[in-house]
Amino acid sequence: MNFYFISDDRWFLEGLQKIPLKLYGQVLFIHTNDFAKMPLPNAGDVVVINVADIALRQKFLHLPVMSACRVIILLNISIIIKCSLGREFPWLYPDNAKVENLISCLHLAAKTPIVYKDIRQQEKWYFQYLNSGESHKELAARMGLSEKSLYALKRRVMASYGLSKCHCTAVMVCRDITGMHQYTLSA
């Protein structure tokens, strides 16, 4: 099993390279500008995504192999209500966590079987359409649901990932996560 650290922050990557991480397997530090030159993760690898650029983060999370990896997304603490370390990937973790805590998280991830939450098609569509600029009224008409039902769907999905209820970045993270499942490895 390999460990990939993918980031658009060179300081983050350089800092991690100077710390003894005590991880078993190859550890790769990849800046987003250099990603095309690097090998893709393999199924089962641990992949830490610390990418602030929302378009780049979506690009990496929607790589087919990611749905077969142990993905940990580092995010600004203000949008995370609770860390989502547990049975199902991807995990959301604060980007300002202490190094020791991040290392513990990586060890736990390496031991955790790869299981992803079941995402309903309705949830994927909701976050895709919402992020494309459609209003709740337009979404309700398109999806054949009431606006109240759409708000409930949004709250339920965001809470399942430990995200705050109304932060726009959290909505984009949900779009990225729910979209991961449409890009799976072919058997």
Keyword list:
elongated, Arc Repressor Mutant, subunit A, single chain, 2 domains, Rossmann fold, five-stranded parallel beta sheet
Strands, helices and their partners?
Blueprint: E1 3-7, H1 10-17, E2 27-31, E3 46-50, H2 54-61, E4 70-75, E5 91-94, H3 99-111, H4 121-131, H5 136-143, H6 147-160, H7 168-180
Parallel strand pairs: 1-2, 1-3, 3-4, 4-5
CATH architecture of the largest domain: 3-Layer(aba) Sandwich
The helix-strand sequence is: EHEEHEEHHHHH
Sheet with most strands: strand arrangement = 2-1-3-4-5
CATH topology of the largest domain: Rossmann fold
Number of individual domains: 2
Question: How many DSSP helices?
Answer: 7
Q: Considering DSSP H and I runs of 4 or more, what fraction of the residues is helical?
A: 40-55%
**Main β-sheet: number of strands, strand sense, barrel status?**
5 strands, parallel
Structural class: alpha/beta
Describe, in plain words, how this protein is organized in 3D.
By secondary structure, the chain is of the alpha/beta class. The protein has 2 domains: 3-111, Rossmann fold, CATH 3.40.50; 121-180, Arc Repressor Mutant, subunit A (Orthogonal Bundle). Helix content is 40%, strand content 13%. It is built from 7 helices and 5 strands, in the order E-H-E-E-H-E-E-H-H-H-H-H. The chain has helices at residues 10-17, 54-61, 99-111, 121-131, 136-143, 147-160, 168-180; strands spanning 3-7, 27-31, 46-50, 70-75, 91-94. It has a 5-stranded parallel sheet with strand order 2-1-3-4-5, with helices on both faces. Helix 2 links the parallel strand 3 and strand 4. Helix 2 (54-61) packs parallel to helix 7 and helix 5 (136-143) packs across helix 6 (147-160). The longest helix is centred in the last third of the chain and has 14 residues, at 147-160. The model has no long low-confidence stretch (mean pLDDT 86).
